[in-house]
Amino acid sequence: MALCLVAALCVGASHAHASRPPAAAIATAHPLATAAGKDILSAGGNAFDAAVAVSAALAVVEPYSSGLGGGGFWLLHVAASGRDVMVDGRERAPLAATADMYLDADGEFVPARSLNGPLAAGIPGAPAALAHIAERYGRLPLAASLVPAIELARDGFEIDPVYTRLARWRRDAIAASPAAAAQFLAGDAVPAPGTRLRQPELATTLLHLARDGHDGFYGGEVARLLVAGVRAGGGIWRLRDLAQYRVVERAPISARFEAPTGRWRLVSAPPPSSGGVALVQMLHMLSGFDVAALAPADRAHLLIETMRRAYRDRAEFLGDPDYVDVPVARLTDPRYAAGLMRNFRMDRATPSPPPEAVRAEGADTTHFSILDTDGNRVAATLSINYPFGSGFVPPGTGVLLNDEMDDFAARPGVPNAYGLIGGDANAIAPGKRMLSSMSPTFIESDAEVVILGTPGGSRIITMVLEGLLAATGLDPTAGGGARDWVAAGRFHHQYLPDEVVTEPDALSPAVRRSLERRGHRLSTAGRPYGNMQLVRWRRAQRQVEAASDPRGIGAATVIEAAPAATVSNHRRQPQTQPLRTTP
Ligand code: DON
After folding, report:
1. What's the confidence (pLDDT) of residue 363?
2. Which of 280, 416, 417, 534 could be bridged to 255 by S-S, CB 3.0 to 4.6 A?
3. How many CA atoms lie within 13 A of 367 on its CB side?
4. In terms of domains, do 380 and 516 share one?
């Protein structure tokens, strides 16, 4: 049987499905954020209102992952029109940024400068995105959807063990900012799990956003405090940076493919994310192979080789499409993928020499997935980059700033915190968005809809690929239900360094030996990685499932509109078929 894979920029509406989900569902990385989303749905909000509530709640209860001082990508599916759109709330480089701002006098990259303190912070996009989503897509006023977050910031919540672990790791950066230390530490110490964390200044900033929308953050008192604090701390923001910030609505990347479970469509993040392009490239490279039927070692080897090739292109070609010409159509053309695979050998790893054109990560970041009973969907991946971002809070704002500037290629070919390299396409320029790996994704067939994504730095894209292969039956070892897919073991290759990083139990000893015989260098990740949040709607069965990655502390909930079952571990009949590409 054939697998057809047709990549295209997603334009216009997808085919509309008349049926509605029998239940809504929310999966997020924190139980209090899931509860906030549920409250807003109960109050008559739609998935987009719930997304605003969840994003804002995560900004309060997961300060190590995302927040008002950060950004993200919100992938939306509007059921009434069938339209898919990505709200790009990615941070931008300040207007005073320069290409060499993180290099020392000898031209050497100084990573600490792009990771710690206000110089590391891009101009936040999250508040603008929340205001935009509420106004354009929500049913409730922004102020209503922000209520749970304002209460959590004002009244406090008990911090979790992840907070304590990550705050320990970032203690020095936090301690260097008196306002951050006052907000997140107890004196010099990292508070223990169970300690109540109140953030009154963050509550006030949220109130400004609730009252005045976009301008409540990017203008007035909040903007003045943000800029004053950043500049006093050695940063380069100006009021103009904040006044000029706008979200961008972008057409997602989409592709069609067939799997043992039917004909599917992928919808994922376009540039300035590298995720959608890389996912389509990897799917095309799998074309022609009977992926589901391959022996496990052969399937792992094939996947690794597609990852290697996609990440090579990421390093060379991907960047902010408003600044550089990203050749999306060429990169996502099946014939191009066929060319990339010309030197593929099943018995041997392909080496990764540094790409010529490039001359000159974990548990932080967050993802959530939401489905409402109208069929609206949200997949959102949000970040402040490193755990606790830059560690810097401008006094009086309660806003922890990101260190997303490290996602730029500070110097061509020199790896960033996730070991990723890049060149001119992702060089720093004033107002430019830094390249991201965040990949909020939908996959859908006539029978099913799956909403998924995860944090994990450079490993995000390969985790989403692995989730996609599990959910479509292309990886028959992964099990048949949402909970199996988010729990499945993970491995990753990103071209350079030329090694396969695996979770401790992701590959059997026999598969590991087989990969090593083919020339792969394997390294075991120090701890399990990723935090996938997934919602699945099985249209034919009239059933909704939601699953939160067991590696994290998140919570998934299914909110029944009418009596129906929630979680199933339905196993598919394995079917196999070769993949074929049709241009
Ligand atoms: O946008 C990106 O690709 C990164 N800033 C994401 C960072 C991340 O996922 C960290 N989590 N482990």
Report:
1. 59
2. 280
3. 34
4. no
- Asked whether residue 232 falls in the same domain as residue 322, the answer is no
Q: What is the pLDDT of residues 519-541, one digit of tens each?
A: 999 999 999 999 999 999 999 99
Of all protein residues, the one whose alpha carbon is nearest to atom 2 of ligand 1 is: 436
- Does any domain span residue 324? yes
When pLDDT is cut at 50, 70 and 90, the band that residue 194 belongs to is very high
For residue 165, the enclosing domain spans: 33-249+376-426
Atom number of ligand 1 nearest to Cα 437:
3
171 and 48 part of one domain? yes
Tell how far the Cα of 576 is from the centroid of ligand 1, in angstroms: 35
Write out pLDDT tens, residues 139-181: 999 999 999 999 999 999 999 999 999 999 999 999 999 999 9
What is the C-alpha to C-alpha distance for residues 279 and 394, in angstroms, rounded to an integer?
Answer: 38
Distance CA 327, CA 314 (A): 11
Residues 320 and 404 in one domain: no
**Ligand 1 atom closest to residue 274's alpha carbon, by position in its atom list:** 3
Q: Please give all residues whose beta carbon lies within 6 A of any atom in ligand 1, as ranges.
A: 361-362, 364-365, 383, 385, 404, 407, 436-438, 455-457, 460
User: Can you spell out the DSSP letters for 10-70?
Assistant: --SBPPP-----SEEEEEESSHHHHHHHHHHHHTT--HHHHHHHHHHHHHHH-TTT--TTS
> Separation of 42 CA from ligand 1 center, angstroms?
32
Are residues 407 and 486 both part of a single domain? no
Residue 365: inside a domain: no
The CATH number of residue 273's host domain is 3.60.20.40
557 an active-site residue?
no
Question: What are the residues facing 557 on neighbouring strands?
Answer: 26
Q: Which atom of ligand 1 is nearest to the CA of 363?
A: 12
For residue 110, tell me if it sits in a domain: yes
Evaluate whether residue 153 is within a structural domain.
yes
Side chain identity at residue 515, one-letter code: L
Q: Is residue 481 located within the same domain as residue 344? A: yes
* Distance from residue 41's CA to the centre of ligand 1 (Å): 28
Helical ranges in 83-141 per DSSP H: 111-115, 126-137
Per annotation, catalytic residue among 34, 365, 462, 581: 365
Whole-number pLDDT of residue 467:
98
> Are 487 and 523 contained in the same domain?
yes
Closest-lying ligand 1 atom to the alpha carbon of residue 456:
12
Distance between Cα 516 and ligand 1 center (Å): 29
